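Job type: complex structure
Entries:
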Amino acid sequence: MGEFVLNVNGAQLHVNAPAEETLLSVLRNRLNLTGTKYGCGEGQCGACTVLLNGRATRSCLISVGSAVNAKIVTIEGLETDGKLSSVQQAFLDEGAFQCGYCTSGMILSATSLLRQTPHPTDEQIVAAMNGNVCRCGTHPRILEAVKHASRLAAQGGTR
Amino acid sequence: MILRDDPNLESFQEEYWGPLGGLHVDRRDFLKLLGGELLICLAHPKAGSQESGRSFGGHELPKDVGAWLHIAADGQVKAFTGKVEVGQNIRTSLAQAVADELRVPFGSVTMVMGDTDLTPWDMGTFGSRTTPTMAPQLRTMAAAARQMLIEMAAERWHVEPGALAAADAKVSDTQNTRSLSYGELTRGENLVKVISTQESLTPASEWKVAGTPAPKAEGRDFVTGKHAYPSDIARPGMMFGAVLRPDGFNATLVSMDTTAAEKLAGVQVVKDGDFTGVVAADALTAQKGIAAIQAKWNVPAQPSNRDLFGYLKNNPESGRDNAPQHNAGSVEQAMAAADLKIEASYTVQYIAHAPLEPRAAVAEWEGEKLTVWTGTQRPFGVRDELAQAFHIPSAQVRVIQPDMGSGYGGKHTGEAAVEAARLAKAAGKPVKVTWTRSEEFTWAYFRPAGLIEIKAGARHDGTLVAWEHHNYNSGSAAIDTPYDVANRIIQYHPVRSPLRQGSYRSLAAAANHFARESHMDSLAHAAGMGSLDFRLKNLTDTRLRAVLEAAAHKFGWSGAKSAPERGFGIACGTDKGGYVATCAEIEINPATKMVRIRRVIQAWESGAIVNPDGLRNQNEGAIMQGIGGALFEQVLFDNGRILNPRFAQYRLPRFSDAPQIEIVLLDRKDLPSAGAGESGLVCVAPAVGNAIFAASGVRLTSLPMLPKNEVPGEPKSALRS
């Protein structure tokens, strides 16, 4: 066991965990940030996606020890003063979910994409999102939501 | 409303039996299990009273309004149902039905669902039954409540109820000079009234809230991470559990040494009969504890993919009725006289539901009282599983089902719930068990594999004259042909499945439609007719014709001419009260032979539309999920072991597989609403297969059609996905 200080959603959080424990497990089981989901444990489904220094990262594949110096953003950290981010708002507007279990990871992958590429082509969206699985099959709506978020952000959305 | 005449009854029975094999309930009891009893009682009070005391396991649906509805002093309405939300959006559509019938705004209704202490008993959420049975059930109660509220206002004002009307969450006199809100009338007291007469429900043509695209109830919680799924539940002092799994199916334990595991700090090993698990303060330590257990297993020789379909044909399940389900005329004579005759075999592999949230449960004991939060489509069934496992009355068990990371028919059982409860009992603390992806792929159950043999004959002019359809193992859902054919033998052959199998979205309707609609396409080709014309020539079912024509029109079927690199396919069918037709456009890369689905148009009709946006979403999702089973999903197994129990090895539909999708909805306000969560996927595989045939001349008869890995014992296709 070691003590780690993580920068999560702008707060410094102290946590005791084995250094090899995954960031996913620490977020969910020690910090009660359960919006980040377990889906496969091998980086194949994207349900555990968080932002690490702004980049979409599979939290099931990295250890807590390797995340100490990074700025971590989870789904719980996207709202600003109770206002949804443009990506969150777009997913809600498009009804881009069914069971919603993949939604956190989808939103963070899309957030990462739009920060780097504010106006992505369809091919860029598919490439950026292809590692995220939606088992309910809401892919067409999610693709629409990403485009909608891009437009919202261009109109001066929150992020 | 009388389920006795319901043509889909057989498939509900099958869905119920699947995961529970061996539980026998007679047909009459089964009708009650479906939730039809109350409705039958209303229609036939005498028959109902005669049947009292014969219900299954003592489960009677409550007849008092208060068990289903509560109106608080502030006017907030709670509606209670044992059905569960798994992404099919019934939390929204049922609230719409209640709001509509009670005459309150959508936003004032909250659904309380799948909690065995709070909601009326329910058999489970499957078979597309929520919309046709639970919605009218709740509407009946809401209509009764509305009438009660009118009577309460009449009593306060000393006027006749006939002079009052209910609207906008209040009762007013017809001159509108005074009104009382529902909350002022109930003051939060329970509504005590036993329903004894048939309530007349609002017809779809007069719906105000139902029939509109109401957004997903509590949708904001799904984009903020706030919604707590079963695997997110945490309790004070909660520990984490993990379970020792055998090396293969039907394995017997040869030896086990838990010394090393017991020496690990913070690990408690729990042995209870055949069950071995560990408890620890965190999930990682629990996994390490399991890994430290040395166990040797004896796994007996078992079938594999290689000999699967021969095995299915030669291993009938004994003791099951094995007569044809549908039998008409003489297939033998008609085949002898037919101009065109085609025989073919079709196969489908086992596939996995792979819900993105694997099985999970948190169990907590307080003395002999057990509470379990878990993801299941049958909370009351899991409650009974737990009661049986721990030899306690069901009344001492509470199962709570938070809206979960879906099921698709794959979560009828309560394995994780029983495991968590066993560990929690031993630990004396609440315990969470979350299955790993590989556990979910191995120890859940599968969509049945199947062999389907069809022999059919037609005249030169395209008139179908004979149809013989045998399904081995995959099931009887939608096994009968909707086409007009005088001579028929249609038979389902139950088989001793080598893998644990059970319900899957649409059951065997996907397999039976794949075989039938592929075969119809081959016949059309042999007759020199177009795929659409041949179907229409042999089809008088007006609802099916309507979706077929709607899909063809939207797709531009008449102008769709297939070529070697581009193919167009069509398929149609009906099951569980839904009517569907699907047109697909595929392209084949001439160099790589890669097949890509470019466009899918699907027309859907299931009576009066409750929520058009939800209905579109279900159809779109069913198409995407259907693409997986059509093209690449398959469980590979050998000698009792699953060979591809990981997402890296089990190909799922992804964004790059998504075609352009358009859904055409037909709204039949004159017909009762049927469920729509399942049948939207049944025509995807045949439409795509027919499009591949139209382009390449290659008839693919096995699902998946274009697997990434070659299936042992199956011919290799020249085409790829």
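Summary: The two ends of chain A are 37 Å apart (CA to CA). Residues 4 and 15 of chain A are 5 Å apart (CA to CA).
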